[in-house]
Write a structure and sequence with these properties.
The protein contains 17 helices and 14 strands. By secondary structure, it is α/β, with parallel strands linked by helices. Helix 1 packs across helix 3, helix 9 crosses helix 11 and helix 9 packs parallel to helix 12. The model has no long low-confidence stretch (mean pLDDT 96).
């Protein structure tokens, strides 16, 4: 099938590459010429396990191409994916200026029947807006469908190649059949294609992400209570997760959620609820709890050092909002490091993948260590902010030797308090004494 994907950000690259991997002819469109030139050479601007290798293979096999010529790409394609950014506006709503601009360009380029796919995360009613914009520029037949993505950063390639479900919002039988054919190679194990109306599909993405955000905030509230009453949040989590009605995912207490999806999608759904005079107390609470969780962690540090951290050096392990990505958007590390800097502290940080993003934020205001242990040398304590695998079983004797004092603040509950105490560490975590 002839496909074009407009936008080569995180979603667009994964979608285009994985569709090419299944034998489709895919053209990815972007207006950043430098980025396109690098992609043609297999240089990928984001870190996502497995993605770079797939891009190189499919470019070499001539199934995946990159261009700035949107008109030519649309003319050749049967299915056109819109995968541009929908950043958060000041009022929390999704900013649709890029989606609307692309819709206008598609309308001018349409030369026959097309299926236009909203892959970007967009609020309810966006497909209708896209349809009206395209209609202003063409008399050719087309359909607009909603096909929300459910990709987890760090596992996005596997999520697309082996999806647990595919949601297609369509009001056209013709478009539905084309989309079912397109996704059929990915669903041979019997996982469902869920067909629904367009507005329900648009809502499904926000509802799913916001529910997961609520679970994370709930886990953090329970952990905070556990810490106060002397219960062990990890034991409580295990006891809860054994209930099949609850499940085991997204119930790990820590520093809260970050990234490009959960914070933005919760805000956008809140805005939708307010605009339609609906209740939104649960969503608002989840958002507030998430912000407070970082403040609670900062206060642990300040309490330990009697609020006097000016001139102290803090080693930081982990900057990305989660492991297996270089994405720092809305990462807890940003809030925490900014607070430390404002109070006159120094920061020596290490992250396996996120330094480019970090340098764009802080420049030379922090030190970027070459390795995890380099960050510890001469530091007053260690803050663990991202649970990369390499931080799970470190050399604790070496850590004690390098730090000025054996103090660890673990925002991801990677270690057991009893063991850390036996090793001679002063250890602070989430939801445990």
């Amino acid at each position: 099938m002839q496909i074009c994907v407009i936008g080569t950000g995180y979603v667009g690259l994964v979608v285009g590459t994985c569709l090419a991997e299944m034998g489709n002819d895919v053209v990815c469109v972007d207006n950043d010429l430098d980025k396109l030139a690098k992609l043609e050479k297999g240089i990928v601007p984001i870190y996502e396990p497995g993605l770079e290798e797939l891009i190189k293979v499919n470019v070499r096999e001539n199934r995946l191409k990159f261009t700035s010529d949107l008109k030519a790409a649309v003319e050749k394609a049967l299915v056109c994916f819109i995968a541009v950014g929908t950043p958060q506006s000041e009022d929390g709503a999704a900013d649709l200026q890029y989606v609307e601009a692309v819709a206008g360009s598609i309308g001018k380029a349409v030369n026959g029947y097309k299926v236009i796919v909203d892959k970007s995360t967009v609020p309810v009613g966006t497909a209708e807006k896209v349809t009206e914009i395209i209609k202003k520029h063409t008399t050719h037949e087309f359909d607009v469908v909603s096909n929300p993505e459910f990709l987890k950063q760090g596992a996005a390639v596997d999520d697309f190649l082996k999806p647990d479900r595919v949601v297609i919002g369509s009001n056209s039988q013709k478009a539905t059949e084309i989309m079912q054919e397109l996704y059929s190679p990915f669903l041979r194990t019997g996982n469902p294609v869920i067909i629904m109306d367009v507005k329900s599909a648009e809502m499904t993405k926000y509802a799913a992400n916001s529910f997961l955000a609520v679970k994370i905030s709930y886990a953090n509230e329970i952990a905070n209570i556990c810490e106060k009453v002397g219960a062990n949040a990890e034991m409580v989590r295990i006891g809860m997760c054994a209930d099949k009605r609850i499940g085991s995912q997204f119930l790990f207490p820590g520093l809260g959620y970050g990234g490009s999806c959960f914070p933005k999608d919760v805000k956008a759904l809140l805005k939708t609820a307010k605009d339609n005079n609906c209740g939104y107390r649960l969503l608002e609470a989840a958002d507030e709890v998430n912000k407070e969780q970082r403040v609670i962690f900062i206060n642990k540090i300040l309490k330990r050092f009697k609020s006097d951290i000016a001139g102290m050096t803090f080693a930081v392990w982990g900057l990305a909002f989660k492991p297996k990505t270089n994405d720092m958007r809305m990462a807890p590390s940003i809030t925490i490091i900014n607070a430390l800097l404002e109070l006159g502290a120094k920061v020596k940080a290490y992250d396996p993948k996120a330094f480019d993003f970090a340098r764009s934020l802080w420049g030379d205001r922090i030190v970027y260590a070459k390795g995890a242990y380099d960050a510890l040398e001469g530091a007053d304590c260690l803050l663990l902010l991202t649970e990369w695998n390499e931080f799970r079983r470190p050399d604790f004797d070496r850590i004690k030797t390098l730090l000025k004092s054996p103090v660890i603040f673990d925002g991801r509950n990677q270690y057991e308090p009893d063991r850390m105490e036996r090793r001679g560490f002063e250890y602070y975590c989430i939801g445990k004494k």
